[in-house]
Design goal:
Blueprint lengths: L1 H18 L13 H5 L1 H20 L2 H12 L3 H7 L1 H35 L2 H7 L1 H16 L3 H5 L1 H13 L2 H4 L3
Helix pairs in contact: 3-6, 3-10, 5-6, 6-7, 8-10
């Protein structure tokens, strides 16, 4: 009886060795490193946006100084001195955008750490809203601020986000 079990186990191992490049021992697809850990890319992007959101809430002047100068053609210090009400409104708007980034980031982080990490299709589809938001933000900045350098800063983060979505494609849609 033990001999039969041993032979059967050896045959299973041999079959596993023959197809081991595609399947793991549990019978499921064997994932490549980048498929298995691509969710960490989106986690890192989410954490970066969380930091940006907190900076926008607590230190907004450091973020929008260049934006204000591009729109008004005067340095932030001059704008603040000449129109303190307008300057406070700009600070308020950027603070609100920071709160929006923080709340959006918590939503994205929750989906990344749950459904996306597990390979659920709905999470993969939802996460495409992240590069869509980045592209729309870049277009909005270039159209309304009029400075192409504002758009260029979105290219690296959008590219990294797209990598986090495209690399694990086979995890979500196996052949």
């Amino acid at each position: 009886m033990n001999t039969i079990n041993t032979i059967t186990e050896k045959q299973d191992v041999m079959k596993q060795d023959q197809i081991g490049s595609k399947f793991n021992l549990k019978g499921g697809l064997k994932m490549k490193f980048y498929e298995k850990y691509a969710w960490m890319i989106l986690l890192a992007v989410g954490l970066l946006w969380l930091v940006v959101g907190f900076v926008a809430v607590f230190q907004p002047e450091g973020i929008f100084e260049g934006d204000a100068q591009a729109v008004t053609n005067m340095p932030w210090s001059e704008l603040k001195a000449s129109s303190p009400i307008a300057a406070n409104f700009i600070i308020f708007i950027y603070g609100q955008m920071g709160l929006l980034k923080i709340s959006w980031t918590f939503f994205v982080l929750a989906i990344t750490l749950t459904g996306y990490r597990k390979g659920e299709k709905w999470a993969w589809y939802f996460m495409w809203s992240v590069p869509a938001l980045l592209v729309s933000d870049a277009l909005f900045s270039s159209i309304f601020i009029g400075d192409i350098s504002q758009t260029l800063s979105f290219i690296p983060i959008t590219t990294i986000t797209l990598l986090g979505l495209i690399l694990p494609y086979r995890k979500f849609f196996p052949k």
